[in-house]
Amino acid sequence: MSACTKRGALAALLVLAMGGIATPVMAAEPGPHDAPATCAGTVLPDDLSGWATPEAVAAARDGAGLGSVILLPGRAVLARLHPAGEMKYARAPAQPGDQGSTGGMMVFQAPEAGTYRIMLGAKAWLEVVRGGETTESVHHQHGPACSGIGKMVDFQLPAGRSVIELSAAGSPEIEIMVVAVP
């Protein structure tokens, strides 16, 4: 028996052993369609539970609109953003984004001085402005697996009003939430 005949016989035996049907199978790459199965039953920690029920709001596009968008600790919002060209930021962001990007602003009223974590559900440039100056972040990390939180950034803030600026976002809306860091 030739080598070619032996390989053919071996292939036929494998087909028979697999139930008589030979179908090519390609490994699938994990994607968004896999998330529900792999993330089923995910429960957020108590301090992040507000993420699951965001309130729809329109982000401010200029200083006049800031009074209508005030974030409260532990309560998520789904903010509708504005085209980059329409934005008039409290302070020009370091990453304003291109003409196709979006942005928005909102106020966070810190009840007391401390470290606050700002969480975003999509990619965007995040800055906190206080008294006309940008506040430096003190820590960055990804959100918990399967939470929908993509980015978490910590800031040391005094009590009182700060403006959160979002720029260079690639989508028309973004989920955002602020929590105190113990």
Which properties best describe this structure?
182 residues; 6-stranded mixed beta sheet; disordered N terminus; 11% helix; Jelly Rolls; 12 strands; single chain; mainly beta
What's the architecture in CATH terms?
Sandwich
Main beta-sheet annotation: 6 strands, mixed
Number of strands: 12
Per the principal axes of the C-alpha atoms, what is the gross shape?
A: globular
The H/E string reads: HHEEEEEEEEEEEE
Amount of helix: 10-25%
Structural class: mainly beta
Oligomer: single chain
Question: Strand order within the widest sheet?
Answer: 1-3-12-6-10-9
**Radius of gyration, CA atoms, in whole angstroms:** 25 Å
CATH class assignment: Mainly Beta
Estimated share of beta-strand residues:
35-45%
Count, helices = 2
What number of structural domains do the residues give? 1
CATH fold label = Jelly Rolls
Question: Which stretches of 5+ consecutive residues score pLDDT under 50?
Answer: 2-35
Average pLDDT works out at 82
Write the layout of secondary structure elements.
Blueprint (H helix, E strand, L loop, with lengths): L2 H15 L17 H5 L15 E4 L11 E2 L5 E4 L1 E2 L18 E9 L3 E7 L4 E6 L2 E3 L1 E5 L9 E7 L2 E10 L3 E8 L2
Parallel strand pairs: 1-3, 2-5
Antiparallel strand pairs: 3-12, 4-5, 5-11, 6-10, 6-12, 7-8, 7-11, 9-10
